[in-house]
Amino acid sequence: MEIDGSVLEGGGQILRNSISLSAILGIPVRVMNIRAGRSKPGLAAQHLKGIQLVAEMCRAKLKGASIGSTDIEFIPGKLRGGHYVADTQTAGSISLLLQVALPCALMADGPVTLDLKGGTNADMAPQIDYMCVVLRPLLLKFKVDFSWKIHRRGYFPRGGGHVTFDIKPVRQLQCVDITEQGDVKCVQGWSFVAGRLPIKMAHQMSEGARSELINLPNVNIQTYKEDPNMAPDNCNGIIVACETSTGCVLGGDALGRRGAEPYALGRSAAAHVTAALHCGACLDTHAQDQLIIYMLLCEGRSAVKCGEVTLHTHTAVHIAELIAKVKFTIKSEGEANIISCVGLGLVNKNIPT
After folding, report:
1. Which SS3 state, helix, strand or coil, does residue 128 take?
2. 127 marked ligand binding residue
3. Span 112-123, average pLDDT
4. Does the annotation list 290 as a binding residue?
5. How many domains does one find in the chain?
6. CATH number for the domain that contains residue 206
7. 46 annotated ligand-binding residue
8. Which of the chain's termini has less CB crowding within 10 Å, N or C?
9. Which domain holds residue 337?
10. pLDDT at residue 49 above 80?
11. Same domain for 30 and 51
12. Does residue 286 have a known ligand-binding role?
């Protein structure tokens, strides 16, 4: 199957979703015009390692897998359990390596351990903490779970982070209905600095977040400096997670960069949460696209309620419909949108009932 990597979002997500679905469904793919929408087209280290990781997991035949390549062929074999290592050798995002490999691990023939190395808190990608405290509770609704251990933090530009994930395969994913926001129960936050940066910056990010969350109950934001043995390089950032009475988890995060005021960073992270709450959404903008692949694998009808549908989500839906032939509907409901589909009901026959 030929896939045009330049459509819609035109970046790494087309590649990740195509490779994951190819491995899971056993459909050979050729992805062309890879990252055509980017200033540096073609495979970067992070994308290459993600493809190679899934290729190793399913003993795939791979052509065109090199830095800068804009055209690859991926011919999958059988997904197998085991211990796999992927090292970007840059600050390339560990979260995006997990994003491509996790759905595949669920359909393997045994437990999977992933040792992933690169950036734990990287720009243009969810921070690893977001994946664990926001995305994981949402995946639990599909009966998907993973455990993790952060050995070392990795930041731009050196990377060097290391996280281990343990994943048990499942027989079948459970469909979800995440369309009732409920009432806010609590908001947790983690505001950190690392390296030579002063703890004052963590307090300023926390204050910025609190100013945005002032009308919400039970707000608790921890401020801390990372252990230098765990995180020797400079970085600052904040993660915010809001839990509601119906089990929704909405998150937001922000990462320090040159010239960015810590107070404004904290406020922007929290604003992701308040914006989602305001429109009645049950998912934040970072989670909506990541759930598409799990919805299409489920048995039965799944529905999720989000705010404005992002370009990443439209892209994930496009790839899902193209490769898996699952039809998604997007229906507006006030300021929110409900995304739904009837999944494939894929069964992992390696796992007993």
Report:
1. helix
2. no
3. 96
4. yes
5. 2
6. 3.30.360.20
7. no
8. C
9. 2-178+298-342
10. yes
11. yes
12. yes
